[in-house]
Design brief:
The chain is an alpha/beta fold. The protein is built from 13 helices and 10 strands. It folds into 2 domains: 265 residues, Rossmann fold; 125 residues, no CATH class. The strands form 2 sheets. It has an 8-stranded mixed β-sheet, with helices on both faces. A two-stranded antiparallel sheet has the order 9-10. Keywords: Hydrolase, Signal. GO terms for molecular function: carboxylic ester hydrolase activity.
Length: 401
């Protein structure tokens, strides 16, 4: 039984699945299911001469089966796409394999059991890894070689689209919150948004923060009424409060964007990593006096990796016109890492492709978690689950390819 299905049932079944979840960067424990078989696999990237490791789940029964390769988001990701214990790629793989679709998910270079240096891995290097994964699946007798597709999350969606613009392309591509923006524009916005969140809020979804804001507003209204304010006075005060909040948020965002843009330009204009790291670490400590020197240097070092420097100039629009296979573009409207406006940019770039399907999901965030109102509660704590509407959309679309 998959983690997702046990989550819907709640109780001890879900708790047991959660206890088995792997929170580190290595491979997840091998799951057993009556509906699919699980195999630990390795396959070569012959171009860059390294071995990649992953998990292949194959439906029970007679093949050959359609198959997908899952592609993780940016950063050093394990095969499950683990983020604070939530494992979207694992949940997606288990659901699809229960429904008759083989799935290969693998550790990024330098993560888990895969060879290589993650910090030196560029977006184009990731394309080569995905091509190696597709080649491996096409050699498996239980897989239909003509029905091997790609499903990518975040940057993984862009990697999938870029692979589709190359020879030996996939049969189809599904993107989950892929970007249509120039790399440096996306990174500036992401870093500015993160800057605006307090450390206490970084694990809270947009839906949670909306709920807390609404509760604070209701408390303010109750306090005013208890003090004798009439309806008109309450309405006027609330309108003023909301306007002030909006203005403060806009000003804070503008300030954060300007600061992040300045830091990004330092990286772009100076090839000396040591100098850049020293400057950025100093700026970070000026902005946050709680940040110790070691933390600041570590954060600055991430902005001088080969991937980061390369991604600053990554333009998704350059190759989209060469994508000929069917494409499913998915986006959560509560996504704070990749703004939903990116969907429009991708559609525009793919306008010559007449096999593009687009779907947006209300209340779904960047990790494609269901709205919090739908989360099961275990020991008085809501536990995130993958949006079932998104899962069923992916499943049915892939079955038709």
């Amino acid at each position: 039984m998959s983690f997702f299905r046990s989550a819907l049932l709640g109780g001890w079944l879900m708790l047991a699945a959660m206890m088995q979840a792997h929170a580190g960067s290595g491979a997840a424990p091998v799951e057993q299911s009556a509906l699919y078989g699980t195999e630990e696999v390795t396959f070569p990237n012959a171009i860059d001469k390294l071995q990649l490791a992953g998990t292949l789940t194959v439906p029970q029964g007679t093949g050959p089966f359609p198959a997908v390769v899952l592609i993780s988001d940016m950063g050093a990701q394990n095969r499950d796409g683990n983020v604070r214990g939530f494992q979207p790629l694992r949940l997606l793989a288990e659901h699809l394999s229960e429904q008759g679709i083989a799935v290969l998910r693998f550790d990024d270079r330098g993560v888990g059991k895969s060879e290589g240096d993650n910090n030196a891995t560029t977006t184009l290097d990731r394309v080569k890894d995905v091509q190696a994964a597709m080649l491996y699946l096409r050699t498996r007798p239980e897989i239909s070689a003509a029905r091997v597709g790609l499903i990518g999350h975040g940057e993984g969606g862009n990697v999938g689209l870029l692979a589709a613009a190359q020879p030996m392309s996939p049969a189809y591509v599904v993107t989950l919150a892929a970007s249509g923006q120039l790399g440096r524009e996306l990174l500036t916005q992401q870093q500015a948004a993160q800057r605006m969140l307090s450390s206490a809020d970084t694990s809270q979804t947009l839906g949670k923060r909306r709920l807390l804001a609404q509760q604070a507003l209701e408390q303010q209204v109750a306090s005013m009424r208890a003090s004798g304010a009439n309806a008109a006075q309450v309405e006027t005060a609330l309108a003023k409060y909301q306007l002030n909040q909006k203005t403060e948020a806009q000003n804070a965002l503008a300030k954060a964007l300007a600061r992040e843009h300045a830091m990004l330009e330092i990286v772009r204009q100076n090839p000396d990593n040591a100098q850049v790291q020293a400057i950025l670490a100093n700026m970070m400590r000026q902005d946050n006096d709680q940040l110790d020197p070691g933390q600041a240097r570590a954060l600055a070092a991430r902005r001088t990796t080969a991937w980061y420097r390369n991604y600053l100039n990554f333009d998704p629009q350059q190759y989209l016109s060469n994508v000929k296979c069917p494409v499913l573009l998915l986006q959560g409207l509560d996504d704070e890492e990749v703004a939903p406006a990116n969907l429009t940019l991708l559609e525009k770039g793919l306008k010559a492709n007449h096999a593009v399907t687009v779907q947006k999901f209300e209340g779904v965030n960047h990790l494609f978690q269901a709205p919090e109102a739908h989360w099961p509660v275990v020991e008085n704590t809501p536990q995130p689950i993958f949006s079932y509407i998104a899962l069923s959309t992916i499943r049915e679309w892939v079955r038709q390819r």
